[in-house]
Specification:
The chain is α+β, with helices and mostly antiparallel strands and about 280 residues long. The chain has a domain of about 110 residues. It is about 25% helix and about 45% strand. The chain is built from 6 helices and 12 strands. Strands 1, 2, 3, 4, 5, 6, 7, 8, 9, 10, 11 and 12 form a 12-stranded antiparallel sheet that branches. A hairpin with a 2-residue loop joins strand 10 and strand 11.
Length: about 280
């Protein structure tokens, strides 16, 4: 009887300590905004692996990119530090040394891979270059979504809130263009600092049948996962991000797309300044 009473009391205390979903997301949005300036004093190394695989399982194109990253108040400054790419032409694997390389005028693989890299890993509107609408945690993105508290968990030794999110309305093609609310998923929110620890998203809408029939286009398994790590009070950065999905287009083109990104070697950027004094009377 005493054990049952203790369990009930513990559960009641936990419920009392857990804020409602509106308060959780309000604090998350506030901290996303507050940390922007703190993050600009850091720099880090980013490695990207981008891959297109044919239906037969053979690699059609693959790129390894490495950047030096410096966060800005909006987006990032990045400098290419290393690059290695290759594409398959018949039985030959041919290398190239610059992003955006096309080996012929109509190079669908090259254009697709470079577009994915720019749209999903170098969005000038998003934190750390990650596409801004993939993870709806900022104030303006939250306005487009419904959030639901699921439970309280432990993730990598930290107490977290598990939150489900989905668009406020299931968008049609026009709605998607209007508000960008296309994702559903779960977010793990640090219960002490109200920062995202892990976020998983999946596409919440499906291409309508008429579009698939007209263009022969379909996307399957489109989803992404990002994990964050704390580096200082109020300063969190993504340390891994990626996704895998399949594209079928214009009836004959089929590729599995893999995007993987890891960030490491975080350090505070050195700030140097000089003061010049003028002699009296000059």
């Amino acid at each position: 009887m005493k054990l049952l009473a203790a369990a009930v009391l513990s559960a009641a205390c936990l419920c009392a300590q857990t804020p409602d979903i509106g308060e959780i997301m309000r604090r998350v949005a506030l901290n996303q905004a507050k940390s922007q300036e703190l993050r600009t004093s850091y720099q880090y190394r980013q490695k990207q692996v981008l891959r297109l695989v044919r239906a037969n399982g053979k690699i059609a194109r693959e790129e390894h990119r490495e950047y030096s990253i410096r966060p800005k108040f909006r987006g990032i400054d990045r400098t290419l530090a290393a690059f290695d790419g290759k594409y398959q032409a018949g039985s030959q694997s041919i290398g190239y040394s610059q992003p955006g390389y096309k080996y012929r005028d109509m190079d669908i693989d090259g254009e697709l891979l470079n577009s994915m890299a720019n749209d999903m890993l170098n969005d000038h509107r998003g934190r750390d270059g990650i596409a801004v609408n993939l993870f709806p945690l900022t104030y303006h993105q939250q306005l487009k979504y419904n959030f639901q508290f699921l439970d309280r968990q432990t993730f990598r030794g930290r107490d977290v809130y598990c939150v489900h999110f989905e668009p406020k309305k299931k968008p049609g093609l026009d709605d998607l263009d209007d508000n960008g609310a296309a994702w559903a998923g779960e977010a793990l929110i640090d219960a002490e600092e109200y920062q995202p620890v892990n976020v998983r998203t999946d596409l919440a809408w499906k291409a309508p049948l008429w579009l698939k029939t007209l263009l022969g286009t379909n996307i399957r398994g489109l989803g992404f996962n990002v994990t964050y790590q704390k580096f200082a009070d109020g300063v969190w950065f993504p340390v891994s991000y990626g996704g895998e999905f399949e594209i079928r287009a214009v009836f004959f083109y089929r590729r599995t797309v893999t995007i993987a990104m890891t960030n490491s070697e975080f350090k505070r950027a050195e700030v140097t300044s000089s003061v010049t004094y003028e002699a009296d009377g000059k």
